[in-house]
Amino acid sequence: MNRYPLWKYILVIIALLIGFLYTLPNFYGESPAVQVSSAKATIKIDEQTQGRVEEILKNANIEHTGIALDATGVKVRFASEDTQIKAKDLLSRAFNPQADPSDHQYIVALNLLSASPRWLTRLHALPMYLGLDLRGGVHFLLQVDMKGAITKRLDATAADVRALMRDKGIRHTGIAREGDRIVIRFRDEETRTKARYAIADVQPDFIMLEQGVAPDLRLVASFKPESMKRIQDYAITQNITTLHNRINELGVAEPVIQRQGAERIVVQLPGVQDTGRAKDLLGRTATLEIRMVDETPGALEAAVAGQVPYGSELFVENGSHPILIRKQVVLTGERLIDAQPGFDQYQMPAVNLTLDSAGARIFKDVSRDNINKRMAILLFEKGRGEVVTAPVIRAEIGGGRVQISGGRMSSREANDVALLLRAGSLAAPMEIIEERTIGPSLGLDNINKGKHSTFWGFVSIALFMCIYYMLFGLISVIALSSNLLLLVALLSLLQATLTLPGIAAIALTLGMAIDANVLINERIREELRHGTTPQAAIIAGYERAFGTILDSNVTTMIAGIALLIFGSGPIRGFAVVHCLGILTSLFSAVVISRSIVNLVYGGRRKLQSLSIGQIWRPDTPVVSVITPNRTASTS
Amino acid sequence: MEFFRFRKDIPFMRHALIFNVISLITFLLAIFFIVTRGLHLSIEFTGGTLVEVAYKEAADLEKIRSALSKAGYTDYTVQNFGTSRDVLIRLPLAAEAKETAEKGEQAQAGAGSAQSAENRIGEAVKHALEAETSGIVGSRVEFVGPQVGKELAENGALALLFVIIGIVIYLAFRFEWRFAVSAIIANMHDVIIIIGFFAFFQWEFSLSVLAAVLAVLGYSVNESVVVFDRVRETFRKVRGLNTPQVLDHAITSTISRTIITHGSTQMMVLSMLLFGGATLHYFALALTIGICFGIYSSVLVAAPLVMWLGVSREQFVKPKKEVTSNDGAVV
Predict the structure, then answer these.
(1) What tens digit of pLDDT does each residue of B292-301 get?
(2) Is residue B326 part of a domain?
(3) Number of folded domains in chain A?
(4) How close is the nearest chain B Cα to the Cα of A14, in Å?
């Protein structure tokens, strides 16, 4: 008999209920909202902030439709977009009175929030996460220059080694970076061995090789492969952090900044239309270096005349004054923790730098040895260096707190320098290698196109199935709709990014999923044609078709998985939906449709016929009405 | 309603040679066009800048061209897509950026400035258009650097290889190596034909077309699987049929399902073609070709191939053990 045990019916009902619950948020749409979140690690968003937002809105007579506090910040919903923009301006003025966006302590951004009731949100039932091509925004793929990161690290380490040799009183005849190695030269064997142990003690990252014969003995140090990897990982993480800080200045509600592969970073800014500004902030691949100024008498004049001394470089300060700077790097931006504009003891504008402990130690040594000499802070952008400032060292500076002040610096300059220095803490330069900008109207257009194609395709399949297979067709259509329901629920639950190719995959999955039901229905018809009783035909139809359905779905799944592994960007969006769709269609085409069939026919003992459309039997005389679609009826 | 009424099995195998010659000719033609005409690859593969602009009213392409020339661009293409209001502008990568990238010197001073100039093209074009023409309502800018394109092509090829190997292994495991080989030959031939169409008409071959091609590969293998499934069943159940008759029977009894399934999928794809707009246009087109040729190849090409590879009843029916007591008597 075609009856399911009760638990199977319950399973189907529970699956459908959960499916319905998690699909539900997609119908509520989104309401305009303003989000207030923290721009600095020191600023906490709590009930107090929420209260402040409420008060500001109340004082200005702006009505909101709901306010909530979550991990990302305070979110306020509004009835219309007009009030949303009004409220955003008001809140941003109240929370960030400073004119300079880099000083802002809060991010006040426009956002769209799901308009579904709160109990749904509490169940983590959220609408599908729309990709940039559907909601509009900017997408960047950035490539981190790993070679640059390693070189920079080697330069910094060479400086450390130099300091170490001096501290330990080991005499060497030169330390230089040659390609991706550091070469240290010695006169005798004994010193070299001593140096080797000294370096090995403090620099476990190095592989050291001894080369050359006396008097030109060399110690060649290069990074171990695992240290290399660590440096690269660090460079990526550091760059991501820096990007976060920069993007905060843009005021984007839900930026996505993710690592992709070994040396790439994806940045997605939903809703951002001003690509110019976004690109300016991202593309500012500045790196910071502190070096000493070469003040050898006569060297500057020679350099200007074209004779640049070995080990120095000629730069231009403030656009006109030439300045000769040593190539040897004292400190890099990695050692810089913070830079803030402020005032010195004479109430003149200054920039306050905070260095990490290693940086502080190096800076203390260097400043002690170079009192009354000039050091230079250089900013490298796109391989070109620029002298930010070249102050004179007045005294030994310990504790890692460095103040840069100069008589000529205005308060605005102090501000700019601080901002540049902070932004300069990228561990390695980056390039934009892929960019996509999608206008919001185009995004909406894409959603509609996707919806329409799925809808009309579905309707035509449903009509055909109902006409061709009658009740069994209707059951197939119900199974197909539950497939759609489960697929959308799964996508919402997993919060997988839905893109236009993803919608295409939904449509295609539905078009392919009907295959399983066609297989089953054809098989039942065939059994009936051979004279099997209706109940037995149902059993045989489902059982025999299942093997075929499984095989064909596995082959489709193989293609889906290949796309998932090797695809990127839009392809991956397609692949995720495609794979999930195959799983849901297996369940719905086999289990759900069977349970409906069992419910309808299972209980009847004396079943005479099934409503599965006309069954034509070759041995019965040909029907008088000749169907036009008759294709092949030979003999 | 029932469309298909077969009193007897249709003798497909009698015409097997003809089917295969037809398909060989299409296959060779497709390869010929791929070789001679080449593919019109999208900027996702080649690198470059793409600007899509939507106007309120029908756009004047000449005006856009003159605006671009005035802004100093030379190697651009401007064309309508979808409707007369939507305009697509393509700009190739600047030669110098390409060269430096090929040498592998990324982010060095020279390439850096060339690339950053490259990065700005999209916006510059938009500004140039806004200055010359009015009524722009929406836009999309896409920039792809030279590094990305090469990787995509490699990954695409890898994905194809993965699908082929995966399917062969699965089918060999579930059925027989003969089925696996003929299914994959038949379906690779679909893939080549789709690509051949794209080469012949110079349609744009983009990432989503690649996705469609792979989806078709998985999908039309389904077709062969359904037929093979029936072949196996017939071999096991019905005695006294020779191999061509078994294949004829299997194809005839699954042909109604094949056509109805493909028809349903095609309805969905057609709806995508009609309502999906420009982004899904070529995706749906690739699927349409794939579905049409999929029926043909997986049924009429794969089955004869299986036959010629020498499929037979013994491969599916486990040989019964002879009764040992009789052994001595027969000498």
Answers:
(1) 888 888 778 8
(2) no
(3) 4
(4) 29
Please give the Cα distance from A482 to A485 (Å, whole number).
5
Residue B321 lies in a domain: no
Q: Does A273 touch chain B (CB under 8 A)?
A: no
Residues B250 and B271 in one domain: yes
Residue A501 contacts B where some CB pair is shorter than 8 Å: yes
How many angstroms away from the CA of B304 is the closest CA of chain A? 20
* ipTM, interface predicted TM-score of the complex: 0.80
Q: Is the predicted pLDDT of residue A586 greater than 50, yes or no? A: yes
- Determine whether the interchain pair A515/B264 forms a contact, defined as Cβ–Cβ distance below 8 Å: yes
Do both B197 and B54 map to the same domain? no
Residue A193 and residue A292 in one domain: no
**A563, B159: Cβ pair inside 8 Å?**
yes
Maximum alpha-carbon separation in chain A: 116
Selected residue of B179, B231, B265, B316 to mutate for chain A interface (largest A Cβ count, 10 A): B265
Residue A449 forms contact with B (CB below 8 Å): yes
- Chain A hits for B158, CB-CB cut-off 8 Å, are 566
List C-alpha distances in Å: A36 to A72, A82, A102, A249, A374. 8, 18, 16, 13, 44
Of the partner residues B171, B215, B271, the one whose CB lies closest to the CB of residue A453: B271
Q: Is B275 on the interface with A (CB under 8 A)?
A: yes
Interchain proximity B142–A437, CB inside 8 Å: yes
Tens of pLDDT, residue by residue over A354-382, are 787 778 888 888 888 888 888 888 877 65
Domain residue limits at A337: 284-432
Total count of domains within chain B: 2
pLDDT tens-digit profile of A602-622? 877 777 778 887 776 665 443
Contacts of B51 in chain A (CB under 8 A): none
Statement to judge: residues A313 and A424 lie in one domain: yes
With CB atoms and an 8 Å threshold, state whether B7 touches A453.
no
Judge if A102 and A177 occupy the same domain.
Answer: no
Domain membership of residue B72 as a residue range: 48-144
pLDDT surpasses 90 at B167:
no
**CB burial readout A529-568, b (16+ within 10 A) else e:** eeebebbebbbbbbebbbebbebbbbbbbbbbbbbbebbb
- Cβ atoms of residues B304 and B251 within 8 Å: no
pLDDT digits (tens, 9 = 90+) for B191-232: 899 999 999 999 888 888 888 888 888 888 888 888 888 888
Token pair for residue A319?
């656009």
Using CB atoms, which residue from A433, A438, A500 is nearest to B148?
A: A433
A61: left (phi over 0), alpha (psi -120 to 50) or beta: left
Do residues B89 and B71 make contact, with C-beta atoms less than 8 angstroms apart? no
**Could you tell me the pTM of the whole model?**
0.73
Peptide bond into A215 cis (omega under 30): yes
Top residue of A144, A147, A566 to mutate, by most chain B CBs within 10 Å, is: A566
pLDDT in tens, A68-114: 887 778 888 888 878 888 888 888 888 887 666 656 678 788 777 77
Structural tokens at position B325? 């007591």
